[in-house]
Specification:
23 helices; alpha/beta; 60% helix; single chain; 539 residues; 5-stranded mixed β-sheet
Length: 539
């Protein structure tokens, strides 16, 4: 609803107009009434009106001066002059200020003013619609230009046969003047893109917002840079190279990157990182450098938000990440079973730090984490500590789409916090809290002897009562359940470690290896050696 400011030093007029005109019925709101131009101006500085209705001859500041000063602050302000003066000189001054209407008090009634307000409101609506159409047209033009730039950079990367002469013409039109100077190619990454997409509602909006900030910054700060969108969260930005400028130009380029980072953080709350390539002076150089930058996903995966690094060859880790699978699985399982939220960040940070230290390939890290989470989900569902409808498929997708290790760290922390909340909800709603406590206790102590007497004592229950309750709720005896869980754990150790059968037997609290082998075969259908061999050959 448009705001109206009413200014007149004649109080009866103010009272008449404010009380007799049904402002809201006209689709406007009476923001305030003022008896002189000075107080009206001060009020407008706090809250600018859309429509000003003012007398001319007033103390402190007359209506013409008030109109002039407010128009300087808000050129779209709609003004209606309401005055006793019918002199041509006042009308001429009002005309110069593009006043919408000039009404002489002696010759009007409130209905006349209602008609004027309706007309003024229509003017505002029309101007807003025209501005909206102009913005939409500009958006289409900008989007089309960005699409052209994106196609150009993709063709530069992917097309094997390119006419260098035609390419130079297109490049020059898009701000890349390779015929005059060399450039340093950089690959810019948007961190936490999923959060930016939520904030701006779509990928197109994020890209459009970033492009606008980049273009405005390049124009206003006269940054000598040529940006090209590559994907929704990646940009190729060319900066003048050291070879084509005076000494110290790298510092200038570095400073330009910092300015871009600062502007995006300030205006869009988006973190950007840069991976810097080598200097390029020919089309062939640019094609090669862009290819190298795009194949540097291993290096960029470990970049923190707001960093600037030189592209370099990364040596893959020699140690297999899956050799740590059992240890990590035990850490995470224990974390979830103890329900201690204070341990989430230390345990997640421990494994993220290990991954960072060893510099494992990104796809291996994602595969490792996905397997860990899927296995945890299956185990905890079996323990009845995880509802079937508490799916983690969305998290899986986010892991696959994550481009940075630091994002995976946040995802894991949020996931485990969410899990603890949901598991506590399950625990609090069920009537079988003694059984859930028993299941949790068994899971935490699988690698030692676990007896019915020990668990009943832990729960402060009579052994016979606990035995009957467990059988009733679980559909199997306590001993059968413990054996099943130990066999499941034995299968995990056979798959995920190189421990001997004897060592696994000892780890699970069995003194007699022959008995353990027989027990394993009765449950699985194979001996431990056969099971491990089958898994290896199947893999």
């Amino acid at each position: 609803m448009y705001k109206v400011m009413l200014v007149d030093d004649d109080y009866p007029v103010l009272e008449l107009l404010s009380q007799t005109i049904e402002w809201e019925h006209l689709g406007v709101k009476l923001q305030g009434t003022y008896e002189n131009g000075g107080s009206a101006f001060e009020a407008a500085l706090r809250e600018m009106p859309d429509i000003l209705i003012t007398d001319i001859g007033m103390p402190k500041m007359n209506g013409i001066e008030l109109t002039k000063r407010l128009k300087e602050l808000n050129p779209n302000l709609q003004v209606v002059i309401l005055s006793c003066h019918s002199e041509f000189e006042f009308a001429k001054q009002a005309l110069k200020l593009q006043v919408q209407d000039y009404i002489v008090k002696d010759m009007f009634d409130p209905e006349d003013l209602c008609g004027v307000i309706k007309k003024v409101k229509e003017n505002i609506d029309h101007e807003k619609m025209k501005s909206l159409k102009q913005l939409q047209l500009q958006h289409m033009l900008d989007k089309n230009r960005e699409n052209v730039k994106e196609r150009f950079i993709r063709q530069t990367i992917n097309q094997s046969q390119i006419s260098e002469k035609e390419w130079l013409i297109d490049a020059n039109a898009l701000g890349l003047q390779l015929d005059k100077k060399g450039y340093t190619a950089t690959l810019a990454f948007v961190h936490d893109f999923h959060l930016a997409k939520e904030q701006y509602l779509s990928e197109d909006n994020v890209t459009f917002a970033i492009n606008n900030v980049l273009e405005d910054l390049i124009k206003e700060s006269k940054l000598d840079a040529a940006p090209f969108p590559l994907t929704a969260n990646e940009f190729i930005i060319f900066f003048p190279s050291l070879q084509s400028l005076k000494i110290g130009s790298f510092d200038d380029s570095f400073g330009s990157m910092k300015k871009i980072q600062k502007a995006l953080k300030k205006y869009l709350n988006i973190d950007l990182s840069f991976l810097i390539g080598d200097d390029c002076s020919r089309l062939a150089d640019i094609k090669q450098e862009l290819s190298l930058l795009l194949s540097s996903k291993h290096q960029s995966f470990y970049m923190q938000p707001g960093t600037i690094l030189k592209r370099e060859l990364v040596q893959a880790a020699k140690e297999d990440l899956f050799s740590k699978y059992d240890e990590a699985s035990s850490d995470f399982r224990e974390l979830l079973l103890t329900k201690d939220e204070n341990r989430i960040i230390p345990i997640v940070s421990k494994w993220i730090h290990h991954i960072e230290e060893k510099n494992y390939p990104p796809e291996l890290v994602k595969e490792w984490l996905l397997k860990l989470l899927i296995d945890l989900k299956i185990k905890l569902q079996a323990l009845q500590l995880f509802r079937q409808d508490h799916a983690i498929e969305c998290l899986h997708q986010e892991i696959l789409m994550s481009k940075f290790l630091c994002e995976l760290r946040v995802l894991l922390i949020d996931y485990f916090k969410s899990f603890l909340y949901l598991s506590n909800e399950v625990y609090n709603q069920t009537k079988r809290t003694e059984i859930l406590d028993a299941i949790s206790y068994v899971s935490m102590n699988l690698e030692k002897r676990v007896s019915l007497e020990e668990v009943a004592g832990h729960l402060f229950l009579n052994q016979s009562y606990f035995s009957r309750l467990f059988k009733k709720e679980m559909g199997e005896t306590f001993v059968e359940y413990v054996t099943k869980m130990k066999i499941t754990r034995a299968k995990e150790l056979l798959e995920q470690t190189t421990d001997s059968v004897g060592k696994i037997c000892e780890r699970l609290g069995y003194d007699n290896q022959s008995y353990f082998i027989k027990l394993f075969k009765n449950h699985v259908g194979f001996t431990p050696i056969e099971y491990r061999g089958g898994k290896v050959s199947a893999g």
